[in-house]
Amino acid sequence: MNIQQNPSQQLLTNLLDDFVQPKQHYKKRFLFKLGTQYIPVGVEEIAYFYAEDKVVFAKLFSERKFLMDSSLDELEKNLNSSNFFRKNRKIIANQQAIKNIHQHLNGKLKLVVQPTFEQETFVSREKAGAFKNWMAFGLSLIHISEPTRLGMI
User: Fold this and answer.
1) How far is CA 115 from CA 49, 68, 95, 118, in A?
2) Could you report how far apart the first and last alpha carbons of the chain are, in Å?
3) What pLDDT shows up at residue 121?
4) Which residues of 16-27 are buried (b: 16+ CB within 10 A; e: fewer)?
5) This model's pTM is above 0.90
6) Based on CB atoms within 10 Å of each CB, which residue in 20, 85, 131, 147 is the most buried?
7) Closest CA to 121 of 51, 16, 46
8) Are 81 and 140 contacting, i.e. CB atoms less than 8 angstroms apart?
């Protein structure tokens, strides 16, 4: 039996399908070239991605560092935002790499990551609320368009 849906019902059905089973596919691993070989690395092994002099690197929890052939903007689109957060224009960090959060001037947050990042890194005042929710609840930033009332840390 084939039941016809009106356009509103079809739209609602499509939205529910997308909500229950999102169509976004995120990278699960990267292949890094090292000499003549390729090294597969799962995203869970990556502490953060960072830009230095317009070159992007991946830093693993094991302290290894690999050159990337993607920009931070491209990586941000391909990483699950429930696990990775774009702290600023220089670094995208895995939630597991964030070891300390310090309140800083003007509502900014200063973050300490492990393995250690050579430069101080900050989350802007504008992103601080979303960042705290992300840390506390693992919420994807895609679903946080404004500060939520879930309870800030």
Assistant:
1) 12, 18, 12, 10
2) 52
3) 87
4) eeeeeeeeeeee
5) no
6) 85
7) 51
8) yes
Strand 84-86: give its sheet, edge to edge.
65-67, 55-60, 46-52, 91-94, 84-86
CA angle 17, 145, 86 (to 5 degrees): 100
In tens, the pLDDT along 1-15 reads: 455 666 666 666 665
Residue 51's identity, in one-letter code, is A
In this structure, are strands 46-52 and 37-42 parallel, antiparallel, or unpaired? unpaired
Q: Could you count the other beta carbons within 10 Å of the beta carbon of residue 136?
A: 12
The residue behind tokens 């059905």 is 13
- Is 150 buried (19+), middle (13-18) or exposed (0-12) by CB count in 10 A? exposed
